[in-house]
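User: Can you predict the 3D structure of NADH dehydrogenase? Sequence below.
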Amino acid sequence: MKVLVFGGSGFVGQQLLKTFQAQGWQTISVSRHGRPKKGQAAWADEVTWIKSDVTKDQTWQDAAKNADWIIDAIGILFEKPKQGITYENAIVLPLQNIADFLLKQSKPARLIFISANKAPLVLKKYMQHKIAAERFLQQPDFAKLQSVIIYPGLVIDAAKPSTLIAEWGIHLLYRLPFLKKWISGYLPIKRTILADEITKVMRGGKSILTQRRP
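Assistant: Sure. Here are the predicted structure tokens for NADH dehydrogenase:
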């Protein structure tokens, strides 16, 4: 199986590639930065790293034509307007370009979009753009793609200590009976578990992450 991960050099993308490598799958990463400079583990040597900006060039398209699965793991938590990094061009536009390209193929790859289950008020704009991307993909014109949307909570891992601090705070609030129901939709997920759940979906299995949870 040939799998293409957009955003493969990122926090979630690297774990996906590592997990897919363990399955014996052929893995390709497309990202603006190409191969990451840190964490040069052995699995990374087996990945084909393509440096490309899906919103600005077409370097990625040849790889996308021959893929069995494509995962859109592109995303940012916070915008950086001075650097030209916005939710629109880091969440919505990449998915639109990928989906539009696949729709033109006679045998398009299956597409997975990693969205988010919920986000706090401080990330309201982030969540609005995730939902906008979902709605674009859910249009009748794109039914041919048989796409899957994944709804994870906060993705955590020791590789990013700040996520563990956030996890501690969320679980602390979750212990309070009057907040438990409200907090449940924000519960974190380990990065390795997210990758395993996506792998399960790609193998034809079911996952709780394919539905948005209250």
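The helical segments are 11-22, 61-65, 87-103, 124-137, 161-174, 177-183, 191-202. The chain has a mean pLDDT of 92.
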